[in-house]
Known about the structure:
Largest sheet: none
Distance between the termini: 87 Å
Order of helices and strands: HHHHHH
Amino acid sequence: xxxLLLVLLLCTGPALAxxxxxxxxxxxxxxxxxxxxxxxxxxxxxxxxxxxSNASLARDLRLLLRERLIAGDSDExxxxxxxxxxxxxxxxxxxxxxxNWLLWGAGPLMLxxxxxxxxxxxxxxxxxxxxxxxxxSAEEQSRLRDILDR
Length: 150
C-alpha cells in the first residue's frame, strides 16, 4: 500500500510544477498567471506548458510572467513580452497570421498537390494500357524464330 501511494505521488510531479515560493499573494493575479502559463511552451520539454514543467527554464519563465503581471502588464502585453524575447515558438498554440499561414496551409496544399499528381499518373497509365499492341511483322517473326532456334 505504501508503494502504491509513493508511485501515485511521483506521478503527480507535473501537477506540482509551480512551487509555493513562485505563487503570488493576490489570488486573482495568481489565477491569471496560471492561465497564461498553460499557453506557454517549456523550451526544454517542448510539449509541456511551463505550468506543468519542472525544468529550471520553465521556472524562470513562470517567474518572468509573474513579474510582468505584477508590473501591471495586461495578459496580452505579458505574453507579447515573452514572445518578443523567446520567439513565437514559446506559444503552445501559435497564431495563424503572417508567415505562419504558409506553415498552416502547407500540409493541406501538399495533400492536394500529391492527389493531383496521383490522378494525372493514373490517367496517363490508363491511356497507355488502352493502346493496342501491334502484332509482329513477318520479318520480325522470322528473326525471332532464328534467335529462339539458336
